[in-house]
Design brief:
heterodimer, A: mainly beta, four-stranded antiparallel beta sheet, 51% strand, globular, B: mainly beta, 57% strand
């Protein structure tokens, strides 16, 4: 069965710091990859996704992620975080015709 | 914009009660999903449906059932609620395939006493 690992459960950063959240998946074939975000009190929404093509994908609010097939990774990055980025971030993967599997989430707290 | 709505934001039920959680999507999506979200465990799939009257078990179906009588509506049923079913329940939908972008509802926070 496929699995998704998020290494950081809770990250605390000061505003303007750079962010990198790790995500590794276990599926070896063609895979669709996602990052979702849940802002406090709001519903989960898509941040960015990778289906094929350029392994560096850009999402909303200045976020980007890089698909590295050899490392089975899809890490999320942002050069300079803002207080409004405080949220919980979920990585997800869907391999082949399998259903989507979510990671356990990373809570990001940005201190002004 | 796709809109996914859930019947309640908060529910309080007693152990043993039968609980119905309703989800409606307005974009003619074929696939619908029910997850529960618990701290440190992320989202775990309970059931999903790829067509009217069709359902498939997810990773944690025990204690739950589902109903999809109409394309836009997907119901989650707790036959006899237990305290370990206290959780946040999220409904989601995708257009055609279950590997596509998921659109989530606001969630129902269920407390079973």
């Amino acid at each position: 069965a496929q699995s998704v690992s998020q290494h950081n459960h809770h990250v605390i950063l000061s505003e303007a710091a750079s962010l990198e959240l790790g995500c590794n998946y276990s599926y070896g074939g063609t895979v669709n990859l996602f990052w979702y975000v849940q802002y406090p009190g709001q519903h989960l929404q898509l941040l960015l996704k990778y289906f094929s093509g350029d392994p560096l994908v850009k999402g909303i609010k200045g976020f980007e992620a890089e698909f590295i097939k050899s490392k089975f990774s899809f890490n999320l990055r942002k050069p300079s975080v803002q207080w409004s980025d405080t949220a919980e971030y979920f990585c997800a993967a869907a391999g082949g015709y399998q259903k989507v599997t979510f990671g356990t989430g990373t809570k990001l707290q940005v201190i002004p | 914009d796709v809109k996914v709505t859930q019947s309640s934001r908060y529910l309080v039920k007693r152990t043993g009660e039968k609980v119905f959680l309703e989800c409606v999507q307005d974009m003619d999506h074929e696939n619908m999903f029910w997850y529960r979200q618990d701290p440190g465990l992320g989202l775990r799939l309970i059931y999903f449906s790829y067509d009217v009257k069709m359902k498939e078990k997810g990773d944690i179906p025990e204690g739950y059932s589902v109903s999809r009588e109409k394309k836009e509506r997907f119901s989650l049923i707790l036959e006899s609620a237990s305290t370990n079913q206290t959780s946040m329940y999220l409904c989601a939908s995708t257009l055609r395939r279950n590997q596509e972008t998921q659109y989530f509802g606001p969630g129902t926070r269920l407390l079973v006493l």
